[in-house]
Amino acid sequence: xxxxxxxxxxxxxxxVYNKKINTAGTSNADVPLADPGMYQLDITLRRGQSLxxxxxxxxxxxxxxxxxxxxEVFRSKIIHKNLNxxxxxxxxxxxxxxxxxxxxxxxxxxxxxxxxxMGSAFLDLTQLELNRPTDVTxxxxxxxxxxxxxxxxxxxxxxTPKEGEHRDVQSSIHSFLHWRICEIKTMLMRKSWKRSSKDxxxxxxxxxxxxxxxFFWRTCSRPALPVLGFCKAEFQSTCYQNAQxxxxxxxxxxxxxxxxxxxxxxxxxxxxxxxxxxxxxxxxxxxxxxxRLGHQKYKSKIMPKTLxxxxxxxxxxxxxxxxxxxxxxxxxxxxxxxxxxxxGRCQVDLSALSREQTHKLELQLxxxxxxxxxxxxxxxxxxxxxxxxxxxxxxxQKEREEILRxxxxxxxxxxxxxxxxxQVKVIRAEGLMxxxxxxxxxxxxxxxxxNDRLLTHTVYKNLNPEWNKIFTFNIKDIxxxxxxxxxxxxxxxxxxxxxxxxxxxxxxxxxxxxxxxxKNKQLTGPTKGVIYLEIDVIFNAVKASLRTLIPxxxxxxxxxxxxxxxxxxxxxxxxxxxxxxxxxAAYYVNSCFDWDSPPRSLAAFxxxxxxxxxxxxxxxxxxxxxxxxxxxxxxxxxQEVCISVQNILDEVASFGERIKNTFNWTVPFLSWLAIVxxxxxxxxxxxxxxxxxxLVWGINKFTKKLRSPYAIDNNELLDFLSRVPSDVxxxxxxxxxxxxxxxxxxxxxxxxx
Length: 753
Hints:
five-stranded antiparallel sheet, C2_dom, cytoplasmic vesicle, 27% strand, four-stranded antiparallel sheet, alpha+beta, MCTP_C
């Protein structure tokens, strides 16, 4: 039998002895600050009354967030257009410190914009009685305007000890391990919320946290022991188990790894809108549509001056929840120089749709007029996984043969969307940038391929981390670019950028471990550190060629373009170069007519052919009202025009650079593909008269809408050119030479010295 003093001295850890707490209907207001017990807080969010109006229609779309210790632990559903919402939602929260209050914050949901604050309140957990249901009425306040009445929130809560009759036995162990548990909890919550916020829903993160906590209590649970009557060996065993748990969490727990992987793909084709509401003075609108599923967002193109727009656009979402999810859809009218007008909203409940089947939906717009026509398809997830270096698909001979067989030339027409297989080994990094005041960093790595995004665990306090992880992806477009980004994990703010590399799949040398110099965010110059990767790509060349002639997959996590003086100047210079090429070509043709070089002019006279056509494009000028705009609106309009000019310059310059890079063999695969296509077309013209080819092309063009009314129009030539990198992208994808001091041989010599 060890008393508390002997136990404290045996472990050399701070120990606080707490007297036994009577849990039968007594208040816990006098619980000590170091109370080690776990509690379960069951909350029923009843309703709200007389909430503040935040929308122009005099209503709000309220939802509620619960926070403990600065971390969001529950978010309610959204009640649209209601100032007296009824939720009746239940939440189960694990509480470790009763002195940390439960904060309740109410927001008004605004799709595509920042949600409006509607008030907050807090619940003092130390004033609750254990094992007794309590009805709570909280008055919402705004800290900036304490005198404003913002309504009330009604809750029902019950606080119970998590461990029941074994709590007194567990409390002795928990008291001196308390600081380590808090560290593990904070680390896991930072992993889930800081780095995976773009991929995980809130309920999944909270579920992951609860799973890890329950794993800890299963690990530390002991047989029935007398209070403070356990032996030293049992205590050391408990410490060892806790150390094992901490090591496991540092190596990326199974719960965290699984939460990154999606369970399905939702493909949405936005077909058209019908009889939309007129928002402009000319009786028309400039509509576009926004989609949101969790943190994934898409925005359609703008259709000018129409109430029956034809979009024909496709978007792909990742589905993380087994039961499905809700896709929020809103329609807007684009207004230059002022806030866009809201046309209407609708939702798609994915749990009500069957998988592996295309559903045609005609959705009525709420709070507005008209319909949206969609095609929605739910499919199984692609092969995307994370594993340790010990699990290698390509090193297993049978699995490698199966992968090679799947992408062999004989299986050309089997699943055309499945082009290839990518395996990325993220081994280690060296010489990273210092991000913390301690002179160290907490690096983790994010691996992205189009919209597929996975991440490693964090290696704490290290500038030379070793991850030793393998990521596998399905390739849908061989012209995709693999992006590997290193971040520093921070406790209280978003992760800091440490470096990034972008690697086109066609430039990868299979099975070669290479040191890639990390670049800045714009990928224009080097930053500190290198990362060691080993990449393997297996693909079907015929499938890859066919996929080159269809539109590229859009990337939903790309940042919106912002006005930049340097970027605008750079695009102007690129545009000037393209124009000068055309001007020089015109001078060259004119010199043939002036007989500056008689041999050249004579040859041109023999084969002269008019290939130039002058096209005049008239700019449509919108009829604007003569209303006076404020200064802020004018600034906003000027900024929007500058961004449009910046983007147009980039598109035109990129188009000319892509044509040039096709002929100068910047990407040999694409140049060979162009040569093969020209050769095939030449052979066809040799055997088939041109008029028959034009006839077949015309029949196909006129009957396309009859055969496939919802097909997305595309231009094969423009889709091909979209795969050719521009000069800016060539610089971004160019590998920098690593410092020789980072080579393994050089490092060993330095260590020996």
